[in-house]
Specification:
The complex is a heterodimer. By secondary structure, chain A is mostly helical. Chain A has one domain: Non-ribosomal Peptide Synthetase Peptidyl Carrier Protein, Chain A (Orthogonal Bundle), CATH 1.10.1200. Chain A has 5 helices and no strands. Chain A has helices at 3-14, 21-25, 41-55, 61-66, 70-83. The longest helix of chain A is centred in the middle third of the chain and has 15 residues, at 41-55. By secondary structure, chain B is an alpha+beta fold. Chain B has one domain (3-144): Hotdog Thioesterase (Thiol Ester Dehydrase, Chain A), CATH 3.10.129.10. Chain B contains 2 helices and 6 strands, in the order αββαββββ. The longest helix of chain B is centred in the middle third of the chain and has 21 residues, at 55-75. The chains are: A mainly alpha, B alpha+beta. Chains A and B meet through helix 3 of A and strand 6 of B. Chain A: Residues 4-81 form the Carrier domain.
Chain lengths: 84, 148
């Protein structure tokens, strides 16, 4: 799966929780979930659970704590998919 | 964990304790009850001359049983650090019937998920006639105390 496809899928996942529509529209590898998209920390959990469901992977606590931006989300998803 | 142990661990005290007891609890669901006493302060002003239980208090009953009691049960022996506490993070509730002074309500809460310190539940509150009073989804999280 290429990066663009992943970012497009992530955009759909974060859409219900993102409070900054402009940042959502311009989502890219450097987008931060909290600082740019204005997703609150409680909804960050929902984002991660939706990522698990979408990609059929399990995110552990350590990965969860790192998953604060698009870049690390892609890294984690790719690593989990690669390990399957 | 016994229901008595859970009640003792609750971080609430009167006048803001809204759990009288639990009928049932396991890792998936909890059932608890509370009676709104006629002499409660809220009825003096909600409403003037027509006492009805405020929706925020119905929400509180649902949260104290559905999130905090179940949360304490799910944490088990895990002890929260001194600077950590429970925080209500979201509610989506439909209010269907009024609750009048003296009524006993029963909370039926079912876990949707408990992950990364966040607990989300589907909750229904019923009156003594077993009619739905309010129903919806609530979530809470273990958070650090912001003012410490």
């Amino acid at each position: 799966m290429d990066k663009e496809t992943l970012i497009t899928q992530l955009r759909e996942i974060v859409k219900p929780y993102a409070k900054n529509e402009e940042a959502l529209l311009n989502i890219n590898e450097n987008t931060d979930f909290v600082n740019d998209l204005k997703i609150n920390s409680a909804n960050l959990v929902d984002v991660i659970l939706d990522v698990e469901e979408q990609f059929n992977i399990v995110i552990d606590n350590e990965s969860m704590e790192r998953m604060l931006n698009v870049k690390s989300a892609i890294e984690i998803i790719e690593a989990k998919l690669g390990a399957q | 964990m016994t229901t008595q142990a859970i009640l003792q661990k609750l971080p609430f005290a009167p006048p803001f304790l809204f759990v009288d007891g639990l009928d049932y609890i396991d890792s998936e669901k909890v059932q608890g009850y509370f009676t709104f006493r006629e002499d409660m302060d809220c009825y003096k002003g909600h409403f003037k001359g027509y006492p009805v239980t405020p929706g925020v208090l119905l929400t509180e009953v649902m949260a104290q049983t559905g999130l905090v009691c179940l949360g304490i049960y799910l944490l088990g022996d895990e002890v929260l650090a001194e600077n950590m506490t429970f925080g209500l993070t979201s509610t989506e509730i439909a209010f269907l019937r009024p609750v009048f002074p003296g009524e006993k309500v029963t909370v039926y809460a079912e876990k949707v998920y408990f992950r990364f310190g966040k607990l989300k539940c589907r909750v229904t509150l019923k009156n003594e006639a077993q009619q739905d009073v309010c129903s919806g989804t609530i979530a809470g999280m273990i958070i650090s105390k912001p003012h410490e």
